[in-house]
Design goal:
Helices cover 40% and strands 18% of the residues. By secondary structure, it is an alpha/beta fold. An 8-stranded parallel β-sheet has the order 7-6-5-4-3-2-1-8. The chain starts with a helix and ends with a helix. It binds pyridoxal-5'-phosphate (PLP). Pyridoxal-5'-phosphate binds next to strand 8 and helix 9.
Length: 220
């Protein structure tokens, strides 16, 4: 199957209001361009160098989302063009994004990465550490950051009941954070969950944004 037909199949299965982030990491610019020519505009990448190279070669109207673990010393390089950083898991990172974004006078969207999977190796905040971060720090003073919601990755397993429970947990945490900190905040609205093997379940559980890579571009 071609990138174009994979993309069209997935798009036709998504509700209109669910955004599709095409995860192009490890795939060449030609593949991104094929998806672009099929109408796709939102792309996800997980490494600073790779997204920098691609961004420089590809059309300006692409909305780039950073979805991988991001070290603070790599923030500055992507700030001039990045649309959303989906993997914010510390105050140190959030405040650095705020600082660099304000230095170039751009607004950057951030999603709070929440740990929902059972694997210990995955990054992310819990409801407690996230609440602590938002209570202890003056995130409202970050004038060039919009906290637009949460992101999470379910356990990689065929046990779809477990995957569903993890997505339910992310939705619950989103609602808690919304009520506690963002009830008057129009930006806080996204629940980024669902990948190639589990996005239909994520949508049933309230995803507003799915991040699909291999089902569009093939295996990495
Ligand atoms: C790689 C990646 C994806 C896409 O994974 P696929 O299984 O290829 O769809 C989604 N989200 C994150 C955070 C990723 O790192």
């Amino acid at each position: 199957m071609s990138v174009t037909s994979n993309l069209n199949n997935i798009k036709s299965s998504l509700p209109d209001e669910v955004k599709l982030v095409a995860v192009s990491k490890f795939h060449p610019v030609q593949s991104v361009m094929e998806a672009y020519n099929a109408g796709q505009r939102i792309f996800g990448e997980s490494r600073m160098q790779e997204v920098n190279v691609k961004q420089a070669q590809l059309p300006e109207d692409i909305e780039w989302h950073f979805i991988g673990h991001l070290q603070t010393n790599k923030v500055k390089a992507i700030i001039p063009y990045i649309h959303t950083i989906q993997s914010v898991d510390s105050w140190r990172l959030l405040s650095e994004i705020g600082k660099q974004a304000s230095a170039v006078n751009r607004h950057v969207n951030c999603l709070l990465e929440i740990h929902i999977a059972e694997e210990e190796s995955k990054f992310g905040l819990t409801l407690d550490t996230c609440s602590e971060m938002l209570e202890q720090n003056n995130w409202q003073a970050l004038t060039h950051v919009h906290i637009t919601g949460v992101m999470g990755m379910a356990t990689y397993t065929d046990d779809f009941n477990r995957v569903r429970d993890e997505f339910k947990k992310l939705k619950f945490i989103f609602n808690e954070l919304k009520n506690r900190y963002f009830s008057k905040n129009e930006y806080f609205s996204e629940i980024s969950m669902g990948m190639s093997h589990d996005y239909p379940i994520a949508i049933e559980e309230g995803s507003t944004m799915v991040r699909v890579g291999s089902a569009i571009f093939g295996e990495r």
